[in-house]
Design a protein that fits this description.
It contains 10 helices and 8 strands. It is of the alpha+beta class and 291 residues long. The structure holds heme C.
Length: 291
């Protein structure tokens, strides 16, 4: 068995290249990095190949680095935490890995590729960096690792190239399929109304406005009965604008459709920001509790 303990980072990268691991790792992680990019404030930093031994030997110079590290799984601590060692000999001090989105524990005594940022372990720092994650280490474990380096992992890749930290994409519920239909109708009707205002054809406009109003009526009813309740006001406001468009049309004042069309356009984003969630495959879900 290869002993990685004495490899320096440059050697590790060479080793990864020789083994063809570099390419495999990049292909596994690249689409996710792209999907996550908008949520991160800072530009993604390059990922550097690293050994667990290098990080443990000199934590200070590795803090803040985005690393890709092949290491042997030593012990599973919790559902989202485990420690790795440079190799299966377990001679050295183990390195803590926290993987908030871990869906299955890696096999002890197998080599995994862990990708993520090296931090100095501190529960407050973890809470800040991994929003929505509840640290599940015991008080003793927290005390033991505080101040030590930790890899806050976004990928834990098995020898079979399965990423154990990749959240499965939740399928749409039947209600969400219905709701998505309303949104698609809205997404067709509003541009049609706006285009129709360029070369007004009252009969055609009437059809598009009616479709828009119907879809927002459906959205409002859905949200009122199933939630999220906080989203109702955006639907009601949109519906009021669609009703104003309808009245303008009924009294032949086509010019008066423009203003509500603009207001509705603004409401799309106001509601999407808190209540629309995009999955890694690009599809959308309702964010918040739906009964
Ligand atoms: C009341 C809140 C709300 C308003 C207002 C709203 N949306 Fe949505 N929209 C959502 C939610 C929640 C989702 C995610 C669930 C879904 O896709 O069905 C969504 C999803 C979408 C989708 C993706 C549909 C899919 O599933 O592929 C489109 C397109 C869309 N909205 C367009 C619009 C446009 C255009 C407007 C404004 C004219 C608008 N929405 C106004 C809540 C809203």
């Amino acid at each position: 068995m290869l002993n990685f303990r004495h490899f320096r980072p440059a050697t590790a990268s060479l080793l990864a290249a020789v083994l063809g691991l570099g390419a495999a790792i990049v292909s596994v992680s690249a689409p996710r990095a792209a999907a996550q990019a908008p949520a991160q404030a800072a530009a993604p930093r390059p990922m550097v190949p690293m050994t667990a031994a290098s990080i443990l030997r000199d934590p200070a110079t590795h803090i803040g680095l985005n690393v890709s590290m092949m290491a042997a799984v030593e012990t599973i601590l919790t559902k989202t935490a485990f420690v790795v060692d440079q190799d299966k000999a377990k001679a050295a001090e183990p390195l803590l890995v926290l993987a908030p989105s871990l869906i299955a524990a890696p096999e002890p005594n197998t080599y995994v590729t862990v990708q993520g940022e090296v931090l100095k372990f501190d529960p407050a720092e973890i809470a800040k960096r991994a929003k929505g994650y509840t640290l599940d280490l015991s008080a003793d474990q927290i005390a033991k690792f505080t101040g030590k380096p930790v890899v806050l992992a976004t990928a834990v890749i098995t020898p079979g190239l399965t990423d154990l930290a990749k959240k499965p994409i939740r399928p749409m519920t039947p209600d969400e399929v219905t709701f998505s239909g309303y949104m698609k109708a809205i997404n067709t009707a509003l541009p049609a109304v706006r285009a129709g205002l360029e070369k007004p054809d009252p009969a055609e406009l009437k059809g598009h406005v009616a479709a828009l109003k119907q879809a927002f009526t459906d959205v409002e009813t859905f949200l009122k009965t199933k939630g999220p309740a906080d989203a109702v006001k955006f639907a009601s406001d949109s519906l009021a604008q669609a009703t104003a468009m309808e009245s303008a049309l009924a009294s032949g004042k086509l010019e008066e459709i423009k203003a509500p069309a603009g207001v509705i356009q603004g409401l799309c984003a106001q509601c999407h920001k808190p209540f629309r969630e995009q999955m890694e495959d690009g599809t959308y879900r309702i964010r918040g509790s739906v009964r």
